[in-house]
Structure prediction request, 402 residues.
Amino acid sequence: MILADKKILLGVTGSIAAYKAILILRQLKSAGADVTVMMTASAKRFVTPLTFKVLSNKEVYSDLFGQEEGLPHLSLLEGCDLILIAPATANFINKMASGIADDLLSSLLLSARVPILVAPAMDSDMWKNPIVQKGISILRETGIRIIEPESGLLASGKEGEGRLASEDGIFEEVCRRLNIKRDLAGKVIIVTAGPTREPVDPVRFLSNRSSGKMGYAIAIAARDRGARVILISGITNLPKPEKVEFISAPTTHEMREAVLRHLPEASILIMAAAVADYRPKKPNLKKLKRSGSSLSIEMEETEDILEEIGKRNTKTILVGFAAETDEVINNAVMKLRKKNLDLIVANDITLEGGGFESDTNIAVIIDREGSVQELPLMHKRDLAQIILERVMALKERDTANT
Ligand SMILES: Cc1cc2nc3c(=O)[nH]c(=O)nc-3n(C[C@H](O)[C@H](O)[C@H](O)COP(=O)(O)O)c2cc1C
Prediction:
């Protein structure tokens, strides 16, 4: 999670766009940030503090004198990495520019020594008003970063400049100010995740113990680093990650179709799904009943999605996974060569902390040039970041060689 360990104060002021601060909060939270919300009195007329309290899982602050601790305008700044005012009203911008400190948020800003981002939202005439523009210039001169409002339909029904910048644009600016990498911006990545289910009859299926956690962690990490992510997933118990394109593909056949359909758009394919190798050849159309004797089910090989794509020799970077019980490195190298992969992430599922359902993994990453990187036990979130680093290094090498 790229904003893990980052402490952000989100100031919300009294604009009609205040509801968008809810989406901004969710995006920051889902990237791992610790977000404290502060509201002006006017902002509370638009959205209730309760909404922010529940979504941030923290107290919401707005009263300079109503807090139990003595100096909230100072204590809230402790450990803070960045302050984001979104949306910022014309009134609040002018207050900031004049150094007025007549409520909690404006008082706190005068003491702040961390980066401050201001995302204005207002009617276009208000935005064009020379006093507001003067205020904006003063803020810029003092090092405050203005996230320019967009043009479009305004709350008044008129078209013009003044709409709050998009949540993605604001998120990107936050990352930039915190020096967080957005090295996947502009890239399309397909990630497959979870187990496949191969039907035996209308109620039963053959599957495996994959939880999908590794693939979902990669999808989230790639999204946070700016990629457009297409997550093609078998059935899991995990919540659909926000802001990724989600395609449900319960069977190997459906997963293959979805991957091939989207492959032309993608420059990176990461196949973290645990795809079945075999499926019942003729699933029973009706539920199988007890017959008093043993039952044999004839199985056929499923399509090998990675091998098929590897043979096409596309420019897409191909990453496979190998869950092994023995000879981990040898088996992984064989799979990498056979399927013409660029990178393979192998793990010994018999090791404690390295199995299917766990939040952690103990992996070995091998690339097409044969370099072997043995990694210690780590959270799948951290492994996801390392895999993406390795993918980007390969992509850079490819670009340098063309
Ligand atoms: C329905 C409604 C919508 C408003 N929307 C905006 C807005 O988008 N931008 C703005 O600058 N002011 C807007 N205002 C005016 C502000 O709420 C007003 O200037 C207020 O004093 C701002 O207080 P604050 O800056 O302390 O939050 C709106 C007022 C109303 C009643």
Q: What stands out?
A: The CA atoms of residues 308 and 339 lie 8 Å apart.
